Amino acid sequence: MNLKNSLYRCGFKNLLFKKLIVHIVTSQYKQWREHRYLSLLAVLCMESVIG
Question: Would you list the DSSP string of 1-51?
Answer without folding.
Answer: -HHHHHHHHTTTTSHHHHHHHHHHHHTTTTTTTTTHHHHHHHHHHHHHHH-
